Amino acid sequence: MPSPTQRHVLCALVQNVPGVLAHISGMLASRGFNIDSLAVGETENTALSRMTFVVVGDDRILEQVRKQLEKIVTVVRVIDVSSRDFVERDLLLVKVRSPSGPQRAEVRELVDIFRGRIVDVGPDELMIEISGRENKVQAFIERIRPYGISELVRTGRIAMVRSDADLGSEDESSHAASA
């Protein structure tokens, strides 16, 4: 029985060299794979970067994406994070219209409820930072929207497998590369 379409979180450990992001995103696009979310950043090893992808599809699509990533020379390792016990986060910065007075107090209360932070205060706007799972960030956006969002930016998803998870699982693939 085919598995239903779902969101998969993949992490690729890649060599930190110019052009890696363009090469990987171009390869995925040329094969018709859509990247729902992408975050790239440094790791504890300055020679490596971590790319976290969210792709939508069934297990067959996931396997094709993994195999294509593993063929790229600059890719050191690919992990299907979503098949394991993991922690994920999205980050949101949002400017909300909020003149002084009762409306500003309501916005501050919402920020507190969602465990966010006000990171900038203007005469008629507040800039708010929220981090957490995708559904938490999305719920905050929906609750704050009636106040008037003037600008919004989100990161791609980042994720890590929990420390107590079995790191030698069959879901982890290694690419023979010397980094």
From TrEMBL:
Assembly and binders: Dimer of large and small chains.
Gene Ontology biological process: isoleucine biosynthetic process; L-valine biosynthetic process
GO cellular component labels: cytosol
Species in which this protein is naturally found: Roseiconus nitratireducens
Cited InterPro entries: Acetalactate_synth_ssu, Acetolactate_synth/TF_NikR_C, Acetolactate_synth_ssu_C, ACT-like_dom_sf, ACT_dom, AHAS_ACT, AHAS_small-like_ACT
Keywords: Amino-acid biosynthesis, Branched-chain amino acid biosynthesis, Transferase
NCBIfam families assigned to the protein according to its UniProt record, in alphabetical order: acolac_sm, PRK11895.1
Pfam families the record matches: ACT_AHAS_ss, ALS_ss_C
Biological function: Catalyzes the conversion of 2 pyruvate molecules into acetolactate in the first common step of the biosynthetic pathway of the branched-amino acids such as leucine, isoleucine, and valine.
EC number: 2.2.1.6
Family: Belongs to the acetolactate synthase small subunit family.
A Gene Ontology molecular function term of the record: acetolactate synthase regulator activity
Pathway: Amino-acid biosynthesis; L-isoleucine biosynthesis; L-isoleucine from 2-oxobutanoate: step 1/4; Amino-acid biosynthesis; L-valine biosynthesis; L-valine from pyruvate: step 1/4
SUPFAM superfamilies: ACT-like
Name of protein: Acetolactate synthase small subunit
Record-annotated ACT domain positions: 9-83
Highest taxon, organism lineage: Bacteria
Catalytic activity: 2 pyruvate + H(+) = (2S)-2-acetolactate + CO2
EC top class, as a word: transferase
